[in-house]
Design brief:
- The strands form 2 sheets. The chain has a 4-stranded parallel beta sheet with strand order 5-4-6-7, sandwiched between helices. Strands 1-2-3 form a 3-stranded antiparallel beta sheet, with no helix packed on it.
- Helices cover 38% and strands 9% of the residues.
- It is globular, with a radius of gyration of 21 Å.
- It starts with a helix and ends with a helix.
- It is α/β, with parallel strands linked by helices.
């Protein structure tokens, strides 16, 4: 127990680690990476390596991946679309061992983030994970092999990384992740862009991540809407397109926040089935409709601001309806928009070749 306590103290710095404003270029024998942080956007990663050997930052050959030394899935967002609900549902299911930190932020910020909630430290597996994550975040480069080894504590269970910021990753980094973990399954939880933005903005104000402002003032709302980091997270079709270009269709699923509101039990069942878990196993008495964010007070949304947001997202709402389908088909009608004849407008909104590739 004393050893357990000493190791627990050693990993407490994880939740206090500051994120550097800039990381300098580093060159390695087999690989080089260059990071640049730009404002509130995630770190951009540029890397290249020889393809005749798997290497880590020190140039050593990597050991072959084992089934236990890799995540089984990722949930890449979207923010305010049910990712916390998903983490809690999986964490309570007997087929899963979930990390003690919900959002690892490894591929966007090298896990150098301050956590609003202290990480879980209930046993030796949690401590081992946190120690490895702390060590991994100290490296100035992305180490895919040791990222995969974070998940060794899962043993024969399922585990994954639920980090909504991965919705902002570049196509280049997505290809590297999917190429290294070829069996990785990816989940994206989509939400009406207008509702998602307002919920996200309300959360930022609630937690003082941004300064309070007059939510009835369209200019103030627009200032927050046009922030680069917010825009990157607000267009679900762009996120889905980037990921679907680089992953087998059988390993990628889009689910909807609408279904979480209407029938959380069926949504839970569908996700568990996709992840090869048993939906009928009991889950520590956690109800499928449990959502600890449900009671959070949102900013008042006036009809004028709602109309402004609807116009801003008009094309995206219609594109979601035609490309995502499902509940997204209902989104434009909420704001008085029609999707009739919108198919031909997509050639102006997206590259025609990309659209044809999507249809194929």
């Amino acid at each position: 127990m004393r050893a357990f306590g000493r190791r627990k103290d050693a990993v407490e710095s994880l939740s206090r680690s500051p994120m550097p404003a800039r990381l300098d270029s580093h060159k390695f024998k087999f690989a080089f990476l260059r990071f640049r942080y730009e404002g509130e956007n995630n770190g951009r990663v540029h890397w290249a390596w020889r393809f005749n050997a798997r290497t880590v930052g020190d140039g050593k050959k990597k050991r072959p991946l084992t089934k236990h030394a890799q995540p089984d899935f990722m949930c890449i967002g979207a923010h305010k679309s049910g990712t916390t609900w998903l983490y809690q549902q999986l964490d309570s299911h007997p087929d899963f061992w979930m990390p003690p930190v919900k959002e690892l932020h490894y591929f966007d910020q090298l896990s150098r983030v301050q956590h609003s909630v202290p990480p879980r430290c209930r046993d030796e597996c949690d401590l081992r994970f946190l120690e490895r994550l702390n060590s991994l975040s100290a490296k100035p480069y992305t180490d895919l092999e040791n990222y995969g080894r974070l998940f060794e504590p899962k043993g024969s269970l399922l585990s994954g990384d639920i980090s909504p910021n991965y919705s902002t990753l570049s196509s280049k980094l997505i290809r590297q992740i999917v190429g290294y973990f070829p069996n990785l399954k990816v989940i994206f939880l989509a939400r009406d862009p207008v509702q998602r933005f307002w919920s996200h903005l309300s959360m930022e104000v609630h937690y003082r991540q941004i300064e309070p402002f007059d939510a009835t003032n369209i200019h103030e709302v627009n200032r927050n809407l046009l922030r680069r980091g917010m825009r990157l997270r607000s267009f679900p079709t762009a996120v889905v397109t980037r990921w679907k270009r680089n992953i087998h269709p059988d390993q990628f699923r889009v689910y909807f926040f609408d279904d979480l509101q209407r029938n959380p039990s069926e949504l839970r069942r569908s996700i568990l089935h996709f992840l090869d878990a048993e939906p009928d196993k009991p889950s520590d008495q956690l109800k499928a409709d449990y959502n600890r964010w449900a009671g959070m007070e949102k900013l008042p949304l006036t009809s004028q601001v709602r109309s402004h947001l609807a116009k801003f997202f008009k094309k995206e709402l219609k594109t979601c309806a035609t490309r995502l389908g499902g509940p997204a088909k209902e989104w434009p009608a909420r704001y008085g928009f029609s999707v009739i004849c919108f198919f031909w407008q997509l050639t102006d909104y997206f590259d025609l070749l990309v659209w044809c590739d999507w249809i194929a």
